[in-house]
Amino acid sequence: MVTFFEASLDAVSVHHVGNPSQNERYALSDHALELKDNVIPKLLMQYFLTPFEKTNEVYHLAHSSDLNLNEVFHFVTEVFEDKSKFHEASEQIAKYLYKVSNHPKIKSGELYVAYFNKVQIEGNQLDAIGIFKSENKETYLKVYPDKGGFTVDYEENAININKLDKGCLVFNIEKENGYKVVVIDNANRSQETAVYWKDEFLQLKIRNDSFNQTSNALGIYKNFVTQKLDDEFEMSKADKIDLLNRSMKYFKEKDTFDMDEFTGEVIGNPKAIESFKTFKSQYEQEFESPIGDTFEISDSAVKKQSRVYKSVLKLDKNFHIYIHGNKDLIEKGFDEGKHMNYYKVYFKDEA
User: Fold this and answer.
1) So where are the chain's domains?
2) Which of 26, 107, 208, 319 could crosslink 315 through cysteines, CB 3.0-4.6 Å?
3) Main-chain phi, psi angles of 195, to 5 degrees
4) Residues pairing with 124 in the sheet
5) What is the value of pTM for the model shown?
6) Rounded Cα distance, 221 and 275, in Å
7) What is the DSSP string of 173-241?
């Protein structure tokens, strides 16, 4: 999604952002970093940009009432229009991040604001502004020759350039929609602390492209099968797995999603089809994220969703049955003598 073979680092400013709820402060640099050699820019480029090579989701900066009230949108627009305002805007971004970093579990850390040239996204080579935060520090050993042998030393509170905690790239395109944005958040796995980076600081909304349409459609269907169907139908776990397998097969084999075709081929039962469409409509209204009745299927989204589509039937702690094909080759029953359920599996060859 994001490549940077021809990219260059034009400028970078570093500030420190604490947590106001912990009585910590922020500290601002007087000027941007002086990039005197070629080594530091290359290391910074590796640290900042490499994690985005595998990102697929594209977002837009947003606001509930007026896009211009999104602080990050306002500051990056200033820089895109006048690069001389870069460092001043970076200071304002640091102050704003400090303002929203008030959850007691949010860690203090360094904030980097960087300006890049020629970063490529979706075939377009663009200027981009990066906003990154390092929260986790590590200790490194250093070994070097000394007096016919070796000496071991260490450095504390150092940054691992292969582990970016938080970051986003804002590309100078689609300004009217809130720019194209890709985002990383590896530091906070809990929902209560992760929300501040994407939702409170950046105020992102996901772009409604083929990747997200595909991801959302598969996610909604998975939730429908695993959470909703039991309310209306009596279904075994094997039947549910079969429905999930059939839906994944549809998305892997088709180039375009069609709602009527999908529900007819995969679900089949008219009552269940109506229930799914109602379930989908409720999701669209709740999350304000419409999913078209037809859209181009994204292979990368299907690949990502296939990792969480489970085809495993777990039986107590003794057995796991993986169901990949014809569910008619597995039968469920109850043994009166042992007072236990059982599954009978039919096959031709044993691997």
Assistant:
1) 2-135+162-206, 210-345
2) 319
3) -65, -25
4) 121
5) 0.74
6) 11
7) S-GGGT-EEEEEE-S--SHHHHHIIIIIII-EEE--SHHHHHHHHHHHHHHIIIIIHHHH----HHHHH
The strand pair at 8-17 and 109-121 is best described as antiparallel
DSSP code of 38?
S
**Per-residue pLDDT tens digits for 242-268:** 888 889 999 999 999 999 999 999 999
Contact by Cβ (8 Å): 113, 12: yes
Residue pair 128/52 in contact by the 8 Å Cβ criterion:
no
Write out pLDDT tens, residues 10-25: 999 999 999 999 999 9
Q: Which residues of 272-308 are buried (b: 16+ CB within 10 A; e: fewer)?
A: bbebbbebbeebeeeeeeebeeebebbeebbebbeee
Tens digits of residue pLDDT in 150-168: 999 888 888 888 899 999 9
Residue type, 318: N
Nearest to 116 by CA among 51, 57, 170: 170
